[in-house]
Amino acid sequence: MMEESLLNFNRQFTQELEVENAEEWQRYDRFLIAGMGGSALAAQLFSIFRPELDIVIHRDYGLPVLSQERWKDRLVIISSYSGNTKETLSAFKEARMKHVPLAAISTDGKLLEIAKSQDIPFIRLPDLNLRPRLAVGLSFLGLCKLMGDEELYAKTKQLAFELRPKELQGQGELLAKELVGKIPVIYGSARLFPIAYQWKGAFNETASIPAFANVFPELTHNEIDGFDVAENAPETKKHFHIILLNKEADLPHIKAYMEIVKQILQEKGLQVSEVQMKGHSDILQTFSGILLGFFTAFFLAKLYGVDFDKDKIIDEFKKRSARL
Predict the structure, then answer these.
(1) pLDDT at 310 over 90
(2) Which DSSP string do the residues of 6-45 spell out, in sequence order?
(3) I need a surface site. Which of 8, 46, 203, 240 has the fewest CB within 10 A?
(4) Could you report the per-residue pLDDT of 187-238, keeping only the tens digit for each?
(5) 99 and 209 share a domain?
(6) Contact call for residues 247 and 190 (beta carbons, < 8 A)
(7) Rounded CA gap, 99 and 97, in Å?
(8) What CATH number did the domain enclosing 120 receive?
(9) Domain check: are 168 and 104 in the same one?
(10) What is the DSSP letter of 81?
(11) Which residues of 196-211 are buried (b: 16+ CB within 10 A; e: fewer)?
């Protein structure tokens, strides 16, 4: 089931999305996007492609504390694939109470039920029977449409023809074999950190292993010292495998930092793999990198014999916290 979803990942970009309750919809230049997991990832990606926009990403209950000036002319977009995510529904409720401009993205659930009844603009995502974390393409398209970015929307839809899941499947399988028995640590530049963080989440949820992510140059000021393992804990570093995500457009000094970190860590006895983002455009490189992370986690789950269609601890957490 999951492998089929990955091989058909580009099907997400064939979908044509429309804003409903559009009579209440208008264009904004300032946004607050409330979402968890893949919905938040889509927002992070958008902020990378449009760094000039004022975008606040909120991953919590309610709404963040902003000054009155910062709230002015800001559209709040509530994004939840299921439409029933507690944190995002809480943000939706508070946004309605504060009477701020509001829109929603979801497949269904309470979120769309309220949006329809309250004449709030919304986008209904098609239900492609995906695990929510795999629906980042749909969520991204939804943001493009609600934020009025038809140019980025059109470029993203080209991925239906340009993305090559079969090629990435083979790369992911090879990388997964290198990661057996290791804890992945994924590093990238600021522009690639959302992808690094998505890889971390894919390893957590799909392969059921710990994984960590960080960003250059910040990690060179603290985290790399953690691999200078004390003499009385020599086995510690053997558990980690470093994955460096890089792209041709990375700044020269970031590329130089990556090479230095690679050399130092290898000298310390750590395994390091490099993954080059490939494609003729930023949008193709981005989603190829995301899909490669999903494939790598999928094959690692297979090697471990994990039931990757179940989030056992997440499900247990939801069960225990249901009454909160």
Answers:
(1) no
(2) HHTGGGGGG-----BSGGG----SEEEEE--THHHHHHHH
(3) 8
(4) 999 999 999 999 999 999 999 999 999 999 999 999 998 888 655 556 677 8
(5) no
(6) no
(7) 5
(8) 3.40.50.10490
(9) no
(10) S
(11) bbbbbbbbbbbbbbeb
**Do 154 and 116 have their domain in common?**
yes
Residue 247 confidence (pLDDT): 92
- 321: in domain: no
Which residue type sits at 119? Answer: D
pLDDT of residue 168: 96
pLDDT at 23: 79
Q: Is the pLDDT of residue 182 over 70?
A: yes
Q: How many domains does the chain have?
A: 2
Name the band, by pLDDT with cuts 50, 70 and 90, for residue 269: confident
Kindly state the helix (H) or strand (E) to which residue 240 belongs, with its residue range. Answer: strand 240-246
Same domain assignment for residues 173 and 290: yes
Q: Which domain holds residue 234?
A: 163-304
Residue 71 C-alpha from the chain's centroid: 25
pLDDT value of position 21: 87
SS3 102: strand
Q: Is residue 314 part of a domain?
A: no
Q: Is the peptide bond between 165 and the residue preceding it cis, with omega within 30 degrees of 0? A: no
Same domain, 187 and 253: yes
What is the distance between the terminal CA atoms of the chain, rounded to a whole angstrom? 33
Read off the pLDDT of residues 132-152 as tens digits, 9 standing for 90 and up: 889 999 999 999 999 999 999
Of 85, 32, 36, 40, residue with least CA distance to 63: 32
Any idea which residue has 């890889």 for tokens? 199
